[in-house]
Protein 1
Amino acid sequence: MNKWLKTLLFLAGSALLTRFIPFSSLFRNLDTMFHEFGHALVTLLLSGSVLRIELYADHSGVTYSAIEAGSKAILVSLSGYTLASLFSLLLFYLYTRGRYRWGLLLASGVALIMLVLYVRGGFGMIWLSGFILLNLIMLLVWPKAGKYYYLFLAFLTLEESVTGTLFLVSAAALTPGRAGDAANLAGLTPLPAIVWALLFFVFSLLCAKWALGFFFKEERSRRNPISR
């Protein structure tokens, strides 16, 4: 089967099946967390300042920052969807290396940084605190379930990183002024919002293809340990 078709079918199946897992909606904020952290991280790397970050129950979020206009502002606008997709890819890479605990520690570390330094909204603080606590339980109290919990988070984050950009494409086509980062980039560059949204979507699909390639390779290796 064509690898791209396989990727799309697997993502569609994952998006459907995870809807039946109790409380899965709460964990969809993980992709939002990585997205907003991406904006904050690049802002700091470019010598800007992060004022605050807000996470909402509808899986949206916003990062308020101060950065110079021009190329730096463009890079900050590019960073959200891009780094969210790369984080999802990293989670699968760590799984194939047998280091899913590192992935949980990484996600917990990002959540802790955001909680301590930037997030002040009620829902965001509660969500981040609960996420950190649950990760610690999986790492320290119930490690046997940690691997499956980690895979759930990895697939959910991968799925959300793609569907998020797909919704962005729809928004950019119908109401380009409300297309979030794509609208910001349209205001900073000659390219319209729909072009930026499509670029984000294509990049998320590339990351999803690579991530699932890591996953399938690892599963084949587990079934055929001699080939390692």
Note: Residues 98 and 109 are 19 Å apart (CA to CA).
Protein 2
Amino acid sequence: MLTAFTAALLLITVSELGDKTFFIAVILAMHHPRRLVFTGVTAALAAMTILSVVFGQVVSLLPKAYIHYAEIALFIAFGIKLLYDASKMSAACDREVVEEAEAAVKKADLQLPKQKTSLGIVIEAFVLTFMGEWGDRTQIATIALAAGNNPIGVTIGAILGHAICAALAVIGGKMIAGRISERQLTLIGGCLFLVFGVVAAIEGA
């Protein structure tokens, strides 16, 4: 359980910082009460984590050998892809992620009433974050971790990692965003995925 918790916490925290959903939280927190934004964002990420873990448990019903090799292949493939992406990145990539987040928030604002209630703000943060996170690499990583590790440890670690990133985004997101290098985070994330792929291979040997 401790191994699953640590793996999920590390992977999620590193992968989510500077991600699209991180900047969505930053932008929303600049226009709305931080506690409401934090509530909506964290609830969405927790819901996504629980769904991913449930799906991972369904996958775990497959033969153990298949799950083991699929987990190794997935982590190593993600690691190589992230390292490749990091090698191709420039400073402009950070701006592209921010612009995507800004566009998502503006689109939602146009569809919602000008005067938003507290519940409306929470729902907006929830929906934008949930949609932004769907199909993200952290979702797939959570599914892979849950398929081969303790589901409770993965759930707690992933939700805590998401909550930490959400708190950083809404409390000091604007200041932090200017100092986050997506290239460096992608590089670290790639290395982490490779490490967990190697660890999974060794444990199954």
Note: The radius of gyration is 17 Å.
Protein 3
Amino acid sequence: MTSHNAVASASLLDGIRQARLVGIVRGNDGGAAAKAALAAMEEGFRYVEIALTTPNALDAIREVRAAAPPGCLVGAGTVLSEADVAHVTAAGGQFIVTPSLAPSISEAASTGIPVLAGALTPSEAYEAMERGATAIKLFPASIGGPGYLKAVRDPFPDIPFIAVGGVGLNEAAGYWEAGAIAVGLGGPLFGTSASGGDLEEMRGRARSFLGLAAEFAARTGTPS
């Protein structure tokens, strides 16, 4: 059964390729997390996930889904179990993200929810795609940097990789150049804003990342 909340995997993938950026909200306050996600969307982020480790994350997802600007999608991160998938779907989450090879991958794929599946090794990346993942979240990317991403991509040129973990403003372009379709941004973008910290500072960082992505698109002649 396909959820009415879901976007088609191919559509999500195309959009993420163009945006090159995925926001990752993780904090200790669901209300603040929702505000941070919406603020990032207002600045131009089209894809934002809220980690289920955030208190009241499902309420935050509902809030963001109801108020998101047109063309912006809210997903859930740290989705591990089949039950998590059901809860996220009920809350209106439009895609899921996992930190690892988890039962949620097959469950989401079978219900038509796109999955950005966490993997680090070539074997994990292959296994996740076999289970129905839409793309691979290379995590933690910082363990090997862009050189490692390139090495993992060499035997799997058709697997879409999103680099996540320790990717800041100075690192993002290196991952794009190594073939990542996007980078996932947690702390380097949101800072403490999902725990009640300064939203204006976060908005400034969001504009910096969006500007970087636009510059890369212009420099490489790729769509944005």
Note: DSSP finds ten helices and eight strands in the chain.
Protein 4
Amino acid sequence: MEMIDANMPRSLRIGDAAPNFTARTTQGEIALDQYRGRWVVFFSHPADFTPVCTSEFVALAKAAPRFGELDCALLGLSVDSLYSHVAWLRAIKDVFGVEVPFPVIEDPSMAVGYAYGMLDEQAGDASTVRATYFIDPEGIIRALSWYPMNVGRSVDEMLRTVRALRRSADGEAYTPADWQPGDDVLLPPALPGHAGADWFHQTKADR
């Protein structure tokens, strides 16, 4: 069995502070901490001008107003250059009639990718990475997901995740499987024997 190198930095986990960075994007230079006070969906894509990534960007661009209603910013990243990003977004607009309204970060040195654990230390590119980090207004990672390069993410599930995280952020309610806004929520479990036989699965209307 191969042993884990104890000196290797561990991957980011739920509850970790999202590493800050400053980088060039398709909308000018930004720093992650300028988004404090808002939710952020920070996601990497393997490469510009690729089929699955293009489908994701078209879908995310169309859904951007729904993320905005949740006070949630979208922020994309790949190792491709800023010039490639600009050309790709222009092509998306020309071919699909969709303008991508969120910044796309260039990361040619892979510094941000390494900081977030998006890339293996031996990787020469980001062609196998499709990672998403859901960051709360305090800059803390509250959820994350990884997909292979040949499977696109569900934008509806990304939206549902943000809504569920926002609804459960105060700790007064949990969201059950397949929860959608307006559905019943779960109460945090009480001590056994104090709230009846169903103490571990009590719901309440969330209207």
Note: The CA atoms of residues 61 and 100 lie 5 Å apart.
